[in-house]
Amino acid sequence: xxxxxxxxxxxxxxxxxxxxxxxxxxxxxxxxxxxxxxxxxxxxxxxxxxxxxxxxxxxxxxxxxxxxxxxxxxxxxxxxxxxxxxxxxxxxxxxxxxxxxxxxxxxxxxxxxxxxxxxxxxxxxxxxxxxxxxxxxxxxxxxxxxxxxxxxxxxxxxxxxxxxxxxxxxxxxxxxxxxxxxxxxxxxxxxxxxxxxxxxxxxxxxxxxxxxxxxxxxxxxxxxxxxxxxxxxxxxxxxxxxxxxxxxxxxxxxxxxxxxxxxxxxxxxxxxxxxxxxxxxxxxxxxxxxxxxxxxxxxxxxxxxxxxxxxxxxxxxxxxxxxxxxxxxxxxxxxxxxxxxxxxxxxxxxxxxxxxxxxxxxxxxxxxxxxxxxxxxxxxxxxxxxxxxxxxxxxxxxxxxxxxxxxxxxxxxxxxxxxxxxxxxxxxxxxxxxxxxxxxxxxxxxxxxxxxxxxxxxxxxxx
Length: 463
Fold this sequence. Notes:
By secondary structure, the protein is α/β, with parallel strands linked by helices. Helices cover 40% and strands 12% of the residues. The chain contains 16 helices and 13 strands. The chain has helices spanning 75-89, 105-116, 132-140, 154-160, 165-181, 198-216, 243-252, 272-281, 303-314, 324-335, 357-365, 375-379, 392-403, 417-431, 440-450, 452-462, and strands spanning 2-5, 10-13, 57-60, 95-100, 123-128, 145-149, 185-190, 221-226, 261-265, 286-290, 301-302, 353-354, 384-385. Strand 7, helix 6 and strand 8 (221-226) form a beta-alpha-beta unit. Helix 11 (357-365) packs across helix 13, helix 13 (392-403) packs across helix 14 and helix 15 (440-450) packs across helix 16. The chain is elongated and about 80 Å long.
């Protein structure tokens, strides 16, 4: 069959239908995943078109996948983080949903308290086991959507569940029907999709879900889970690792609309942000993330990264409050005792800091030379210099001007006598064997020792 596609303005074939391939032996893609060596990236040079949806958004798994990798949050901490996510996502709900566990009293209390806030976004969803008792639990809590685990690779179907593909498909469809019977929107989590037989299981299963959705009138959603971080975003990469191929196939062959597709990735191979961006670009509306990227093993895609990606791709903040990224990082460190690696983009203490004297000299002349964007305005994080043996006169001068927040007409030049004397003292310490960065208080005390009058002037000018 053929039809005229109004989106592409082309006549396209529509008779691609894929039936379940109920194999006797699991397909473990041993040529790609040998296990005793690094997994291979294979190419078939098949290229699919970009298909950016009309609307894209972020969903949150901080309280579900994220919390599994940290010390458990208290109810109060969950509520505070949830409120910050709402503030970050803004009135348009760019951070659209947040998923919760519902198995413990604490989980349920946190969910209820967040619901009682009455915030339109993030919408609260859950994650449950695929049984009727759990569906009733979700229904009784007045939650409209829940995630259901439907593992789709033969690693899981054969080796973990001891089933055939046909048996797994029957079990999954039964669970989805249970959810539909009580009016809950199922979000099917296609676990381990980057090791699954895409046309032999994934697409036939997705097509069955599309039929159930059409029959019931309930928008069944599909979350493509790159559970082990094997996804690759390069053009021409072969399935099952191709992120563009996976999203295109689900959208084009299984006819799952973009607004019902979601990508969930992990960072085992440092590709989590690129893969999430590729999912957006090739037709997936939602990408699933967590604050600071916390999560199983190497973690999930960081929410803060995709917020910045959204702004880059859309050319607008769309009502988001990006300074909350800094608030979240500070909250995690101060309230949860979570250590943010200092060089982590956007949130680490050193992400917009420099120690190199030549860079500091550039910052002193014009901050834009060595700062990625106006981090003071956008993230409430001014660029700064860490003073050590490499900072030079320019680095010390930039630190002083930044620390005391001096106005332009009172900024200190690197040739100032005070800066020269400070550098002599700093250099002496490193010549004697020091190997740690100078602390702010140490540098302030050096200024006091050199000239208490100058120190007092800086405080007056910086007010």
